Each structure stands twice: as structure tokens, then as C-alpha cells.
Amino acid sequence: MDHARTGSTTREGRSIFGVALRAWRDRTDPATLGVDRHAARRVTGLRRGELATLAGISAEYVAQLEQGRGATPSAQVCLALARALQLSDTEQAHLLRLAGHVVGPDRVPRLIPASVRRVVDQLDAHPLSVHDATWQLLHWNPLFTAVWGDPSEAPAADRNAMIIQFEGLNPRVRQSAAERDWFERSLVADLRTTAGRYPGDPDVAALIERLDRTARFRELWARPVVAAHESAHKVAVHPEVGEIALDANILPIQDSDLRIVVLTARPGTDARGALDRLLSPPRRPC
């Protein structure tokens, strides 16, 4: 998972962020997260390395954040830390603000409520992702990574479903011409809805500006179509298990404007078998 985002907080802001992060780490009971408490421990809460593993970042970066000298964390890193530390919704919002991510009614929400996290945790048998209203990827589970590749290997700015689609950033996706046309029309109509709901959000404006570099987006954006993107059909071309035909089921979260995307095996295909093989890879001989 990458660390930095565009822009930065002040040195004072980074210091306050670090103090809060350390306090939350110290109060976290390792046992509630399945961390072995019987090993000799010099700290009452989580070790830095344990928090780093749970959040998918490096221990060195956790140390930098706590010391107020790390690069400003992206929203995705903040959400991963909040999830690992089991922060409340209020604490999660505070963490985002300390990192310089504006939270307010005129900005696209990125906070993943605890209620949504509980739902997401019950769906590990399916590739799953959580996006904001601009289709920025905020969270994904291990099976999502197994199917599509690791999003953390890409810059945060490239982890947007619209950027990936219009700039062709994921070589594992296969779409027919008709599926691609429908999918792109639906995404653009959905983005127009978001742009109308958050007209003053600079992140929305920046996304549209970047997408406008592609002729296909400009063509579709010129059409005044407004609609919600609700479903899609995708085929993942996996290097080990072959083609996986999937249906994307989009669950909108009304109060937070988030979208949970749950990928399910397309009926009449071997997709479920392929997903099961990715869930339980064969053991390698010792």
C-alpha cells in the first residue's frame, strides 16, 4: 500500500497525527485482533510491526508517522490504520482530518463506517472492494487481490475504477465491445451524478480533468446522461487459473455514498471453482 498523497499537512499536523496514532496503538488489545499475547511484550498494546502487518504497510512507515516525519498518508492508508486499530466512526473521521483529508457535506465521503466494515468482513469468500462516489478504491479484500492483482502496487491516484477503465491500466480485464461500451456509459453517467452532488469538491474536478485527456471519456461526458451505476459483467484473465467470469453486484450505502462491489461467480461457468482455488492455493512440497 502506498503512503503519500498529493499535498501535505503541516509539521504540527503530522505531529498530532503521530501522537493520536501511538495512543490508539497503545490502547488496542492484541487479543481482540488474534495477536498472540503470550509472547514476551514490552508494550501494552500493539507493536509497531503488528499494526503495520494488519494495515498492510511497513513498520518503518508506522514509526515515521508516529514520529511526525513520514509522508502524508493517503486516505487509503488512513482507512487501513483505522480498520486495524478498530477505531470508531468519529475517531476514523478525526484521523482523516489530521492527515489533511477534508471531511464535510460538500466533499465526497471516504469514511467507511463500522457497520459497513462488519458487512465487508463477512464476505471474504468473494472478491470485494469498497469505493467512494468517484469510484476511488478505498478497501479491498485478499481475494480481490488474488483475482485482479495487488492494488497497493499502483499509486493511489491510479486506484480509481474510471481511471483503470479509460486508461486501460488492468491487463487482466477482458470485455467484449458491447460490454465495454455499456460499462463506460454507465460509469460516466454515474460520475455526472456525483459531480452534481459535490460541485465544489476539488477531487471530483481533478478526476474529470484527468479523464478528459481521453477521447472516449470526452465523447461520453458531452452527453447529458445522469444515472447510477448498478451492475456489470467482467471476465478476469488470471495467469494461474485462467478466465473467471464474474458478475459485479454493487451495493450502494446511502448515508455515506460508498459503494461495496461484490464479485460473484457467473452462473453456468467454472468461476466459483476458480475462486475456490485462489482461496485455497495448493500446498507446495517441502
UniProtKB/TrEMBL annotation:
Gene3D superfamilies in the cross-refs: 3.30.450.180, lambda repressor-like DNA-binding domains
Superkingdom of this protein's organism: Bacteria
Domain (HTH cro/C1-type): residue spans on this chain: 50-92
MF term (GO), any: DNA binding
Pfam family, one: HTH_31
PROSITE patterns: HTH_CROC1 (PS50943)
SUPFAM superfamilies documented for this protein: lambda repressor-like DNA-binding domains (SSF47413)
Name of the protein described by the UniProt record: Putative transcriptional regulator
Organism, scientific name: Cryptosporangium arvum DSM 44712
Lineage per the UniProt record: Bacteria, Bacillati, Actinomycetota, Actinomycetes, Cryptosporangiales
